[in-house]
């Protein structure tokens, strides 16, 4: 079907400029932060320490807490402005605010200990290089003194006090930059206040650059609405005053160099700057909260906050920067941070070095982090002659294009492997041909050439060696999809289990999670919702335990989690999962498509059809901008559009569209759509039946649903089968009277009849509504599970226990256990009696 989504969707609101004027809001406190206020006011710790770089709202938060506190007693508030202060001067300032207090350090300490009235002392912007005598006096006051005092401290560096002792005694509450940064919800609130017209893409860009840094968010969002200077200039001025002015010349030089590096450590700095005490300078910058962000749990590697790095990058000479980048990329490559080494080599203009590093990567590397998007970006910056300089690079490029659903480009790229044939040895020749077949077979499968795909993938698996095992997972996935589309679900399950075993034996978590995502799809298709959820949670836990390095896979699993929430009818949980998935997958083909269509379904279920269509339009635009093959998403988008039309009760329009989709699915791309979404045709038939019911064509709907039921049985789509059965049951309930010959039965469109039930809710077997003891007996007994129904249907076909186990990929003992449960629930003793009873009750057709 060639009709584009825009032809059937609602018009989106006119785009507005990011530079729209901001609203007038108070400057000191834009967004209340009750979660932090509650945490700081809970309990009575002796020291509340807010330690973070400039601009994290420490002073504002302390003031907000003191205003909301109902604590009795006096309060002393001192702004130290980050400057060293002698002990005697501090004591004098405290005494000045306490009537009758002596100003000497020892006398003041004794005065505080004799006092019965509680006292709160606020030391705002405590200096990084505090006077040693002052540190010792405050440490004694906190740890050893019995003065009824609570200390509130805002600082850019952890003070030299006995903090571990306070922590052990339960007297310390410390908040760092992670806690003080805006949450995503708070960020969205402040965007709505400062610049409500900000586009989604710009909003995401500001978030990724600031990661909740309060001052950075406000300056990047609000500067252009207040003055002619750009936000970068405002941010630069802010950092000059609040950060750079407090640093020595050597510290400024080191920090300016670090701004150009994707990661750094103390040892790394010592190797790059041998003319400086780089290790010591690094430690001082780290302690003084210079916007360093940890990259690992061990506290070894750091990076600069992106917004700060972006500003500082303009302050170094180009020649020095390129020399630094090239030296750093060599060190990073030796430490196996290959992707970051490639980025630095490209930034330094050394394209040949970048390509040399790229040739060391494997296809499984593309599944980690944001590696796929990074690789596609490198392709834009490199000439074709370098990208295709080795067979390994050609195969890697083809894999990346394939994973991004840019199938035509992948196919074109793959043809260049022929330039490297023949290879010097027979083994190399065989391996290269096998790699070509694996990639070519996968592409053919995604293009709908099923026979060719099967032939090439099977041949490749027979020839691929240990070094090419990453490519073999593509073959397993393709063959499993082919089996699913043909209804051979047991075979698909076996293929995927073989692939999972191979991935585990080679310690490839990325490949294991990728194959398991296919297994989850298969389980959902077969109605095994509980097993799908268990496997999903298991794989999310595995990725988390590995440090969540595989962002694209994480996003794919989150999108599936959202789908499972949707089937249970939990719209809020579905929306959260889909939104989180979008943060991981960016513009990666299939996961992006399913996340945005999931959000469209949520909006549609809530009655917001305009927003539903906007999600679909956003999906279409982003996929087109990413050069994703149209055949990879057109059917899914149109099917989701049809679902929205059905919810709007636009029956004529829905029926016309359903017929167009049917023609499209049965046309030249029929096998392709079966590969991408095996259940697409069945889903379209159910929606078409709903449209027919809405138009009063109940006979046509019944006939269509009965044919669809047979198709689900043939393909072993148990989840959809139960849905169709329940649909027929609902239809019978809505219009039980038999129609006279020649009459057309009509079901009112405005009634409570609903075909769009969740599959999880429809997963229970349909029950007979015929009167008699059998029907009522089943209602009294425990219902059959979907797995038990599957076993029962195979028993009805006359299969043995061993044959049933092979078909469902379960053990013979498990089959026997299911049979025993079936007999008990149906009130029989033999399998033949169970089949007869099940048919009489309507469980079996």
UniProtKB/TrEMBL annotation:
Extent of the signal sequence: none
Statement: the UniProt record of this protein carries the keyword Nucleus: no
PROSITE patterns per record: HTH_LUXR_1, HTH_LUXR_2
CDD domains per the UniProt record, alphabetical: LuxR_C_like
Alphabetical list of InterPro entries matching this protein: Sig_transdc_resp-reg_C-effctor, TPR-like_helical_dom_sf, TPR_MalT, Tscrpt_reg_LuxR_C, WH-like_DNA-bd_sf, WHD_MalT
Name of a matching Pfam family: WHD_MalT
Keywords: DNA-binding, Transcription, Transcription regulation
Every HTH luxR-type domain range: 777-842
Keyword Transcription regulation on entry: yes
Region (Disordered), start-end ranges: 760-782
Entry-linked PANTHER family: DNA-BINDING TRANSCRIPTIONAL ACTIVATOR DEVR_DOSR
Name by which UniProt lists this protein: ATP-dependent transcriptional regulator
UniProt source species: Pseudomonas schmalbachii
Taxonomic placement: Bacteria, Pseudomonadati, Pseudomonadota, Gammaproteobacteria, Pseudomonadales
């Amino acid at each position: 079907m060639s009709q584009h989504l825009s032809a059937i969707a609602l018009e989106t609101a006119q785009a507005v400029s990011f530079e729209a004027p901001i609203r007038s809001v108070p400057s000191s406190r834009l967004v209340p932060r009750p979660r932090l206020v509650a945490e700081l006011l809970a309990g009575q710790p002796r020291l509340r320490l807010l330690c973070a770089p400039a601009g994290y709202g420490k002073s504002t938060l302390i003031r907000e807490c003191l205003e909301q506190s109902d604590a009795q007693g006096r309060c002393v508030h001192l702004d130290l402005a980050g400057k060293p202060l002698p002990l005697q001067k501090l004591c004098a300032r405290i005494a000045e605010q306490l009537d009758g207090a002596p100003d000497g350090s020892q006398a003041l300490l004794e005065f505080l200990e004799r006092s019965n009235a509680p006292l709160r002392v606020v030391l705002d912007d405590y200096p990084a290089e505090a006077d040693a005598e002052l540190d010792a006096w405050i440490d004694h006051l906190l740890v050893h003194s019995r003065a009824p005092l609570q200390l509130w401290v805002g600082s850019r560096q952890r003070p030299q006090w006995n903090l571990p002792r306070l922590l052990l005694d339960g007297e310390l509450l410390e908040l760092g930059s992670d806690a003080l940064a805006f949450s995503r919800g708070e960020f969205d609130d402040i965007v709505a206040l400062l610049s409500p017209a900000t586009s989604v893409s710009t909003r995401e860009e500001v978030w990724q650059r600031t990661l909740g840094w309060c001052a950075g968010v406000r300056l990047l969002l609000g500067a252009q609405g207040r003055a002619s200077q750009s936000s970068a200039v405002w941010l630069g001025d802010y950092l000059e005053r609040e950060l750079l002015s407090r640093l020595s010349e050597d510290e400024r030089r080191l920090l300016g160099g670090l701004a150009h590096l994707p990661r750094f450590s103390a040892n790394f700095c010592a190797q790059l700057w041998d003319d400086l005490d780089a290790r010591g300078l690094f430690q001082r910058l780290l302690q003084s909260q210079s916007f360093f962000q940890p990259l690992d749990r061990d506290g070894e590697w750091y990076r600069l906050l992106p917004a700060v790095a972006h500003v500082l990058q303009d302050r170094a000479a180009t020649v020095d920067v390129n020399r630094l980048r090239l030296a750093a990329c060599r060190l990073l490559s030796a430490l196996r941070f290959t992707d970051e080494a490639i980025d630095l080599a490209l930034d330094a203009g050394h394209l040949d070095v970048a390509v040399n590093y790229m040739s060391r990567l494997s296809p499984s590397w593309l599944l980690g982090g944001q590696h796929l998007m990074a690789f596609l970006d490198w392709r834009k910056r490199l000439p074709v002659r370098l990208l295709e300089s080795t067979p390994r690079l050609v195969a890697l490029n083809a894999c990346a294009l394939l994973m991004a659903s840019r199938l035509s480009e992948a196919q074109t790229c793959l043809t260049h492997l022929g330039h490297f044939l023949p290879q010097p040895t027979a083994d190399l020749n065989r391996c290269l041909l096998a790699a070509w077949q694996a990639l070519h077979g996968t592409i053919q499968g995604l293009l709908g050439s099923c026979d060719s795909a099967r032939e090439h993938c099977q041949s490749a698996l027979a020839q691929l060696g240990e070094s090419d095992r990453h490519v073999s997972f593509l073959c397993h996935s393709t063959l499993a999809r082919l089996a699913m589309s043909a209804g051979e679900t047991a075979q698909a399950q076996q293929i995927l289990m073989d692939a999972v075993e191979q991935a585990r034996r080679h310690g490839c978590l990325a490949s294991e999670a990728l194959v398991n995502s296919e297994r989850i799809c298969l389980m959902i298709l077969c109605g095994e919702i509980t097993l799908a959820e268990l496997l999903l949670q298991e794989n999310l836990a595995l990725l988390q335990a590995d440090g969540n390095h595989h962002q694209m896979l994480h996003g794919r699993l989150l999108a599936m989690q959202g789908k499972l929430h949707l089937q249970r009818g939990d719209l809020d949980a579905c929306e959260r999962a889909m939104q989180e998935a979008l943060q991981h997958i960016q513009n990666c083909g299939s996961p992006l498509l399913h996340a945005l269509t999931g959000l469209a379904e949520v909006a549609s279920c809530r009655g917001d059809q305009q927003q539903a269509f906007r999600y679909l339009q956003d999906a279409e635009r982003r996929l087109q901008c990413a050069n994703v093959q149209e055949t990879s998403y057109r059917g899914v988008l149109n099917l989701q559009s049809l679902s929205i039309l059905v919810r709007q009760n636009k029956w004529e329009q829905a029926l016309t569209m359903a017929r167009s989709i049917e023609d499209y699915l049965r046309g030249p791309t029929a096998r392709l759509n079966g590969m991408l979404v095996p259940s697409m045709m069945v889903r379209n038939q159910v929606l078409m039946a709903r449209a027919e019911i809405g138009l009063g064509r109940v006979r046509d709907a019944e006939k269509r649903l009965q044919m669809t039921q047979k198709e689900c049985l043939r393909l072993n789509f148990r989840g959809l089968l139960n849905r169709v059965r329940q649909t027929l049951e609902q239809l019978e309930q809505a219009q039980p009277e038999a129609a006279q010959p020649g009459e057309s039965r009509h079901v009112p469109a405005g009634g409570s009849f609903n075909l769009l039930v969740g599959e999880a809710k429809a997963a229970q077997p349909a029950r007979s509504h015929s009167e008699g003891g059998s029907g009522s007996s089943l209602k009294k007994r425990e219902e059959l599970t979907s797995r038990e129904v599957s076993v029962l249907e195979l028993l009805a076909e006359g299969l043995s226990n061993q044959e049933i186990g092979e078909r469902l990929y379960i053990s013979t003992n498990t089959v026997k256990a299911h049979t025993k449960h079936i007999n008990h629930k149906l009130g029989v003793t033999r399998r033949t009696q169970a089949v007869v009873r099940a048919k009489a009750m309507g469980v079996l057709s």
